[in-house]
Amino acid sequence: MSVGFLFPGQGAQQVGMMADLSEASQAARRVFQLADEVLGWSVSEACFQGPPDRLDRTDVSQPAMFVCSAAALAAMDEGLAERVPAPAVMAGLSLGEYTALYAADAIDFADALGLVAQRGRFMQDAAEARPSGMVSIIGLDEPGVAALCDAVAEGAVLTPANFNCPGQIVISGDRAACQRAIGRAKEFGAAGAIPLNVAGAFHSAFMAPAAERLAEALANVPFRTPRWPVVANVDARPHPDADAIRRRLLAQMTCPVRWAESVRYMLDNGVDSFYEIGPGRVLTGLMRRIERKAPVKSINSADALAKLAGQLAE
């Protein structure tokens, strides 16, 4: 059996996430304590107590999601010991790519957390600078979504941003253009168009100011070649070295996330089971649309980890 580790991105956060794991696992608790020290503010309080409007802010949710997934990894190592599944490859959705790189030992915890916190702040600032948004288009393929964007953009930025799974593509851009897309999506054959509760137009030209700031931050962070392959969002291929990591993470800010292609790459290269490590079950849901036969175990709570430990002991 060949295993892939998957790490969720922003949007899967919810108040109370990983609180039970922090109570049950000393290793997870240490991760939260270290994160609070690194950041200089209590990310554990944001995760465990909220309030929701604070946790949902991009500059809070991104470090929070990273820390929760890192804590789940630490709890797995502690609770499963030699029975920890050995990954053949890793990937993460948007922000989750940073978690995958940390899990693959391409970057140290404190450096990764600091970088993620800066990324979230830069993206929050860019989102607040100009009115923009994102819309999930249901039931259209890539050419259909491109045609919709071209028809309603009216000179504004509106572009595919997340190729999540067959039948679900997220578009990103000017807020008024997003509203026009919602109004006309069914004319182009879409089953629906759902506005997303996000700060702004991620993975589009609206994030260019954030990308400029991130470039300097990336240049100052030491990366290593990953110990395990990590599939990049922008081209659905593994990062070959540290320089490529910097280039691709920078490109990710303004380019689409090719998640379905990334998962298909792993499947085509022999991966036949997956672990979603972190809050929620978003990636598990997407997997059902990409390859229903591929099993995914979600490590998103103390109960989930205890269940896995029992299964592996049988």
Descriptive account of the structure:
There is one protein chain. With 314 residues, this protein is an alpha/beta fold. The chain has 14 helices and nine strands. It has helices at residues 19-24, 26-39, 43-49, 52-55, 58-80, 96-103, 109-129, 142-152, 175-184, 208-219, 242-252, 259-268, 282-290, 302-313; strands spanning 3-7, 87-92, 132-138, 158-165, 168-174, 192-195, 230-231, 273-277, 296-299. The longest helix has 23 residues, at 58-80. The protein starts with a strand and ends with a helix. The mean pLDDT is 97.
Task: Provide a brief overview of the structure.
50% of the residues lie in helices and 15% in strands.
Helix tally equals 14
Strand runs, count: 9
Low-confidence stretches: none
Structural shape: globular
Query: How confident is the prediction overall: mean pLDDT?
Result: 97
Q: Which structural class do the helices and strands define?
A: alpha/beta
Distance between the termini: 17 Å
Return Rg in Å. Answer: 19 Å
Main beta sheet, described? 5 strands, parallel
Please give the order of strands in the largest beta sheet: 7-2-1-8-9
% residues in beta strands: 15-25%
Helix content: 40-55%
Q: Helix-strand pattern, N to C? A: EHHHHHEHHEHEEHEHEHHEHEH
What's the topology here?
Elements: E1 3-7, H1 19-24, H2 26-39, H3 43-49, H4 52-55, H5 58-80, E2 87-92, H6 96-103, H7 109-129, E3 132-138, H8 142-152, E4 158-165, E5 168-174, H9 175-184, E6 192-195, H10 208-219, E7 230-231, H11 242-252, H12 259-268, E8 273-277, H13 282-290, E9 296-299, H14 302-313
Parallel strand pairs: 1-2, 1-8, 2-7, 8-9
Antiparallel strand pairs: 3-5, 3-6, 4-5
Helix pairs in contact: 2-5, 2-7, 3-5, 5-6, 5-7, 5-14, 7-10, 10-11
